[in-house]
């Protein structure tokens, strides 16, 4: 017996299907609910009063539960606190008069000086703590300049297209042809930079060669967002082209920019250390991890702790920014989570 | 394909001219006296100074200088350094060393990066995968020069498995340790890229088909998964060749390798502008050509790019 046959509830016999021209003797009653009895809320569980979650709220929800995000955020906050208030973490002022005594040169660790002393007899722990500020300043401000400059250029190129895009893309290619470290060495050797070496010249130099990468990423994201229906709708409703860029296109292309900028913050800290190591970065009197690692080079065989501690602090900081970037990417782009 | 090639080559010229102009402008448009640097700060007679200025074309207007430089670069007439050596000869000695170093680094990062990446990707979430992922993050976070010091100290000085510095001949064997340091960061990136790509591809329909028709696991992994996962990896490796040339400055400094980076760094320290500009010009050519080759490879591997 075919499964889909219906039975008459009165006598249990199968009902023959209606063929054309033959009217069934059974009357079928349909129950139709009155329209006002099932309000929309009952079917659709979304509350009409609450606003739907934005992309950022959604991302924040999933971020809060991620151990990677929690760990990296705690580490980054710790680094920021150390950079802002180094005196909270050590009673020794490494720039003070009595900070470095040559009699302590290369002395091992002892109570009160948990990491020992460097060649000049300075406390390694205090120097490492005070060196946080310069390294973090370079990372944060280079990232800020790169995001503002690269982001603006990339957004204009991607949004307006045409000849602006061509010129800006070629300009970026020109900077791309010079690797970051190579270009930075040349710029730092210019008399104007060499004679005013400071945290700020390093920041400007790294930003000069860092913006093209961010411009490329912003350009791609803006091109994707510019063709979205909500942008077209806002234009059709009379929003000017530039306002649509500011109000709709840029907020919707921020995700990849934030991810890349976070990871790059770590990259710039490493680049500063590399330049200082090559002798063209921060001036020697600025306390920074790069300078300390660089001066540890000659003492590697006598006193490896001189290299170890600043290198460890630097690596942990960079690692936290990379991990934060990874976590944010996963939260903003659930598709990528499948792979990474 | 031909029109794509021609289009890409035509795009090279503005980049090349722009990049060399940028370097030349940076080095020459700012105040500073390279001739004074030549004498090491000692006083010099006006006649000597004038002769030297003329010899290095420093008396001519900027655009004429740049034009002469470009003409010399194209004809490979790179001039002489302040110490009277031919820049072309110095480069001819140093370039093969850096090329060996970069090729070794590229081979190391490709072989180990792809193998480890495939294994990690096939065993996603297992102990091996997590270990390799954490290790790759650490390698990315530790600056190259710190890694270089550590390896030089541990492998070269403590264990004495390799010589801590490289001799003037810079043979392949001596360059293995520096090449490992140079390629280690890129190795971590290649590994992560391969792993992601393998994880994406291993659930693809054609992989299931291959397994279903009874192919051995080895064949499925090497032929079906690996081949299809290599496109982004190849792109990265090609683009990395140029970056390796730049990164060589640090590595060559640590291990005392007599390569291009070493030459460039010394020229910068001495303020030898003509040498710097000539060497950077050659590096830019290498970098731009490497990018061109990558683009062509990519277009060959993925026809969608060719016709876009």
From TrEMBL, chain A:
Localization per Swiss-Prot or TrEMBL: Cell membrane
Protein's UniProt keywords contain Transmembrane: yes
InterPro entries according to UniProt: BP-dependent_transpt_permease, MetI-like, MetI-like_sf, OppC_N
Any one Pfam family match given in the protein's UniProt record, by short name: BPD_transp_1
Domain ABC transmembrane type-1: 132-325
Membrane-related topology note: Multi-pass membrane protein
Membrane-spanning parts: 68-89, 136-162, 174-193, 199-217, 249-271, 307-328
Keywords of the record: Cell membrane, Membrane, Transmembrane, Transmembrane helix, Transport
Family label: Belongs to the binding-protein-dependent transport system permease family.
Name the UniProt record assigns to this protein: ABC transporter permease
UniProtKB/TrEMBL annotation, chain B:
Keywords: Cell membrane, Membrane, Transmembrane, Transmembrane helix, Transport
Pfam family name, one: BPD_transp_1_N
Residue ranges of the TM segments: 12-30, 97-120, 132-155, 175-193, 233-255, 275-301
Mode of membrane association: Multi-pass membrane protein
Cited InterPro entries: BPD_transp_1_N, MetI-like, MetI-like_sf
Broad class of where this protein is predominantly found: membrane
CDD domains assigned: TM_PBP2
Keyword Membrane appears in the UniProt entry: yes
Compartment(s) where it occurs, according to its Swiss-Prot or TrEMBL record: Cell membrane
Domain ABC transmembrane type-1, first and last residues per copy: 95-298
Family as reported in the entry's similarity comment: Belongs to the binding-protein-dependent transport system permease family.
Designated name of the protein: ABC transporter permease
Lineage of the organism: Bacteria, Bacillati, Actinomycetota, Actinomycetes, Micrococcales
């Amino acid at each position: 017996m075919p499964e889909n046959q219906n039975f008459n509830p009165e006598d249990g016999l199968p009902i023959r299907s209606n063929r054309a021209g033959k009217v069934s003797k059974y009357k079928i009653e349909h129950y139709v609910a009155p329209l006002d009895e099932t309000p929309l809320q009952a079917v659709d569980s979304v509350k009409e009063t609450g606003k739907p979650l934005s992309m950022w709220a959604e991302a924040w929800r999933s971020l809060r539960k991620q151990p990677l995000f929690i760990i990296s955020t705690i580490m980054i906050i710790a680094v920021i606190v150390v950079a802002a208030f180094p005196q909270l973490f050590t009673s020794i002022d490494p720039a003070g008069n009595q900070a470095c005594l040559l009699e302590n040169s290369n002395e091992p660790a002892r109570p009160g000086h948990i990491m020992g002393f460097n060649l000049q007899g300075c406390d390694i722990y205090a120097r490492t703590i005070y060196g946080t500020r310069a390294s973090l300043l370079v990372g944060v401000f280079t990232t800020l300049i790169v995001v503002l400059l690269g982001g603006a250029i990339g957004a204009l190129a991607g949004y307006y297209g045409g000849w602006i895009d061509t010129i800006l893309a070629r300009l970026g290619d020109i900077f791309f042809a010079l690797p970051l470290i190579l270009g930075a060495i040349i710029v730092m050797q210019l008399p104007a930079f060499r004679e005013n070496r400071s945290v700020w010249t390093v920041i400007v130099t790294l930003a000069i060669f860092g913006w093209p990468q961010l411009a490329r990423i912003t350009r791609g994201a803006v091109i994707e967002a510019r063709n979205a229906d909500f942008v077209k709708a806002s234009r059709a409703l009379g929003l000017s082209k530039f306002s649509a860029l500011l109000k709709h296109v840029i907020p919707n292309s921020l995700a990849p920019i934030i991810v890349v900028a976070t990871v790059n913050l770590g990259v710039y800290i490493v680049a500063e250390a590399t330049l200082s190591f090559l002798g063209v970065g921060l001036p020697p009197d600025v306390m920074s991890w790069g300078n300390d690692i660089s001066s540890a080079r000659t003492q590697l065989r006598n006193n490896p702790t001189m290299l170890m501690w600043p290198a460890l602090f630097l690596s942990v900081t960079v690692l936290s920014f990379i991990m934060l970037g990874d976590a944010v990417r996963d939260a903003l782009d659930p598709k990528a989570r499948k792979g990474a | 394909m031909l029109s794509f090639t021609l289009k890409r080559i035509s795009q090279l010229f503005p980049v090349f001219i722009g990049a060399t102009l940028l370097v030349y402008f940076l080095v020459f448009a700012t105040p500073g006296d390279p001739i004074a640097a030549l004498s090491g700060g000692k006083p010099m007679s006006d006649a000597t100074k004038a002769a030297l200025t003329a010899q290095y074309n420093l008396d001519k207007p900027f655009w004429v200088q740049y034009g002469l430089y470009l003409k010399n670069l194209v004809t490979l007439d790179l001039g002489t350094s302040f110490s009277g050596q031919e820049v072309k000869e110095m480069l001819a000695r140093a370039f093969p060393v850096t090329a060996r170093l970069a090729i070794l680094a590229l081979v190391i990062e490709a072989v180990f990066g792809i193998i480890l990446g495939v294994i990690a990707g096939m065993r996603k979430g297992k102990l091996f995968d997590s270990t390799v992922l954490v290790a790759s993050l650490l390698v990315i976070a530790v600056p190259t020069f710190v890694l270089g010091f550590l390896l030089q100290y541990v492998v070269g000085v403590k264990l004495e498995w390799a010589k801590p510095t490289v001799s003037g001949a810079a043979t392949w064997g001596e360059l293995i340790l520096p090449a490992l340091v140079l390629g280690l960061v890129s190795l971590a990136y290649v590994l992560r890229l391969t792993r992601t790509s393998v994880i994406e591809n291993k659930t693809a329909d054609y992989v299931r088909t291959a397994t279903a028709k009874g192919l051995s696991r080895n064949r499925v992994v090497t032929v079906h998964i690996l081949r299809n996962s290599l496109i982004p990896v190849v792109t990265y490796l090609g683009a990395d060749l140029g970056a390796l040339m730049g990164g060589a400055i640090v590595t060559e400094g640590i291990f005392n390798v007599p390569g291009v980076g070493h030459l460039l760094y010394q020229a910068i320290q001495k303020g030898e502008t003509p040498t710097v500009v000539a060497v950077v010009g050659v590096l830019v050519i290498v970098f731009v050509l490497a990018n061109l080759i990558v683009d062509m490879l990519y277009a060959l591997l993925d026809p969608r790019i060719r016709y876009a």
